[in-house]
From TrEMBL:
Pfam families recorded: Mor (PF08765)
Superkingdom as given in the UniProt entry: Bacteria
Protein name per the record: Mor transcription activator family protein
Gene source species: Natranaerovirga pectinivora
Domain Mor transcription activator: 8-89
Amino acid sequence: MSYKKASDILPKELIDIIQKYVDGEYIYIPRKEDNRKSWGDKTRSKNEVYERNLTIYSKYKSGISVKKLAETYYLSPNWIHRIISKLNRE
């Protein structure tokens, strides 16, 4: 998210109307629903986490214990179980 100067992008009449409600304060204008991006869409985070989870699942299937996976990936055993359960359903 970046800040834009209102006077650079909005007509003076609209700025005058907005100033009646918010004078000199910061306001957040959310994206339209159809323009929203879900978590990880701007970066590769979503794909990286998915790849990590596939690796965890693969290692679990090859015999590595949940405890060892939790230690290796710095995750709780419960989180490892969630990853395994989710990928097991797919």
